[in-house]
Structures are given as structure tokens and as C-alpha cells.
Design brief:
Order of helices and strands: HEEHHHEHEHEHHH
Structural class: alpha/beta
Number of strands: 5
Strand order of the largest sheet: 3-4-5
Strand content: 5-15%
Low-confidence stretches: none
Length: 196
């Protein structure tokens, strides 16, 4: 809001929290108001990028986790990012939305952020035992293999993820031995090797 209103930005310590060696900026219900206000601003798609530019030198990697909608905040995140990991859950509508999202990435790359590239597609909320998961996984591979990286790691559908959010703990703290934790660790290894 300070960036939108051209007010002085708060110091890093006012909004960056740290836990177990990881710095993070937590989300807030206020973001819905920011999303609505951004739609009325000139140059709105660059607001987040300007804030993150102040943080780039402090970190090797900055991860922006967004909601699965394509509002002003997500456009801002894509305008600020170097790469995007596209998450797809094994449902028909998610597969249909993937094509639209790729068009949006292409537009943002050509109009706002020429650094933006697709790091890959990550299948989430997967239950490998279900036919739908198998069908969607095959469809993603058949459609995009050779064009877009498809991560080998698949994030399983598990209640542990929701429970960790409820108890305000990271998944690795709350359920270190869960399949979802193992899958996220495998994804981290894949990303490190990919960025290599």
C-alpha cells in the first residue's frame, strides 16, 4: 500500500520475518484490498517488481508463492519474476487453465518482463492411485514434453499440508516424514540441479 500511495517504504525489519534460517514475508488479508486498488493504478503491474528490486541483492533466490488466480497481484508477481513454476492439479479445469496461463506468461514476457521464462510444470495434489491423476499426468506429458520441463516430483494430496497451515508451522516442521515433505525436498533437489 505504501508503494501504491507513494509513501515511504517501511524498513526491511518491519516486514521480513525469519524462521529456521529462512526469511519470509507472510501473506495478509490486506492483499485483497491491494489487489483491488492495483487495478486502478497507472503502471500497476510494476509495483511489486519495484519493491523486490530492493531485496534482490540480499538473497540468492526469492520465491513468490501466489494464489491460483490471475488477478493484479499475480500479474505483479510475474512481472517481477525471472522464472515461473506452473502448478497443475489433476483436474480437467486446471488443465484447461494451463493453456490460458501460458498465453498470459507469453504476453507478460513480450509486454512487461522479457526475463520471464517457464521453469517447468509441477503436478500438485496428486493421488497417483486415481485414474484421473494418471490421465492428466499423461495429458500434460503428451502436450508439453519437449517444450516445457515437467518436474519428476509430484506433490501428493495429503491432509498434513492443510494441518501445517492451520498450526502455522512449515510442513517440514509439522510433518517431516510425510510424503508431501519428501516430495518438496525432491523438488528442491530437482530445482538445484536444474539451476546448476
Amino acid at each position: 500500500m505504501a508503494q501504491i500511495d507513494d509513501d515511504e517504504l517501511p524498513g526491511f525489519k518491519e516486514y521480513i520475518q525469519s524462521r529456521n534460517g529462512v526469511d519470509f514475508i507472510s501473506s495478509s488479508m490486506m492483499l485483497s484490498a491491494v489487489d483491488a486498488k492495483l487495478r486502478l493504478e497507472m503502471g500497476a503491474e510494476k509495483m511489486f517488481s519495484e519493491i523486490l528490486e530492493l531485496l534482490r541483492d540480499r538473497y540468492d533466490v526469492i520465491i513468490i508463492d501466489t494464489a491460483p488466480t490471475l488477478g493484479a497481484l499475480n500479474i505483479n508477481a510475474l512481472a517481477a519474476a525471472d522464472e515461473v513454476i506452473i502448478t497443475v492439479n489433476p483436474q480437467l479445469l486446471a488443465m484447461m487453465g494451463l493453456q490460458d496461463f501460458l498465453k498470459t506468461v507469453k504476453k507478460i514476457r513480450s509486454r512487461v518482463n522479457d526475463r520471464l521464462s517457464v521453469a517447468g510444470i509441477l503436478l500438485t495434489m496428486c493421488d497417483a492411485r486415481t485414474n484421473l491423476c494418471k490421465v492428466i499426468t499423461k495429458q500434460v506429458r503428451d502436450t508439453f514434453e519437449g517444450q516445457i520441463r515437467i518436474f519428476e516430483s509430484r506433490i501428493p494430496n495429503t491432509v498434513k499440508v492443510g494441518e501445517s497451515v492451520y498450526y502455522l508451522e512449515s510442513l517440514i516442521e509439522y510433518a517431516p516424514e510425510s510424503n508431501a515433505t519428501k516430495a518438496y525436498k525432491n523438488l528442491a533437489k530437482e530445482l538445484i540441479n536444474y539451476e546448476g
